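STRUCTURE REQUEST FORM
Protein name: Leucine-rich repeat-containing protein 39
Source organism: Aldrovandia affinis
Requested output: structure tokens
Priority: standard
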Amino acid sequence: MTGVAVCCGAVNSIKALWETRIKKSRDDLQKERELRDRTAVGRLAHAWEDRIKLAKLREKVVTEEGRVILRIEKEEWKALPPVLVQFPQLQEWQLHRTGLQKIPHFISSFQNLIVLNLSRNAITEIPKEIGQLTRLRELLVSYNRVSSVPEELGCCESLEKLELAFNRDLDELPAQLSKLTKLYHLDLSMNQFTDIPETILNLPALEWLDMGGNRLQSLPDDIHRMEKVHTLWLQSNELERLPENISRMRSLDTLVLSNNKLRDIPSLMEDMNNLRFVNFRDNPLTIEVSLPTLSTSEGNEEEEEDDREMFGRDFMRAYIQESRKRGYAVLNLHRAQQW
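Status: completed
Returned output:
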């Protein structure tokens, strides 16, 4: 009898185990079917969403003056969908006030891009893939949150215009940017630069530079290496002196130095005959200079005064001449005391 009980118990155990396995297999099969169904539904929904995004993007693509442009303004696009790669013919991106947080890594798919204008967004990073855009001429990323520039940007061999104004934390540039042999326009205003990077001095085609609103404390003594620069904005910095070699910038015709800490003007600047516009307003200069009153007709008097205030050349020359007179007076007094 004992042997029979054991046998029946063993059979029952095997039967229970078998039934459990069958149930588990059925449950697993059911879960697999449900997962497959959910995946299929998800894929269908994703495909449908992509079709909606694609249709929406297609509405934003326009052709102006022969260029294919993606234009989005004042609409929320915190991220650009991957389906955008279906528009490889795009030559310009004009995306403003969209809240865009990232330049997508698939930016390298747009080899026809000439202009990339992403100003006034929330971009924190410029991806290294940007360096693959060898036809890009303009990169405009002002009024964002970019804190660094990738060295790969130096590979954008066609780049002519770079604007990075008002990114707040930006304070340096990679040395590789000196390879941008066609870059003539550079805007770095309203950032945290404490000096003009060596990279900028090495840009061979640079003509227009704005570094106003930074924390510049001095200018490089070899600033004249920027031999093609004709416009230089340095307002609202912390400059206390100007290097003598600034007078050797032969192409310079516009120089803005307002709201700094300058106490003097180099005498050699008197010979800068190409300098058309200069502004020394709001600096603690040590000499007070009053310009003689102009004798003009009544109708042109106000216009002439505005010109003198705006250009500031007369003030600069009068200041240098007065400084020279005072220097001679001090020297003569010293000699007289020695006699």
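Reviewer notes: The chain is about 30% helix and 10% strand. The mean pLDDT is 86.
Form closed.
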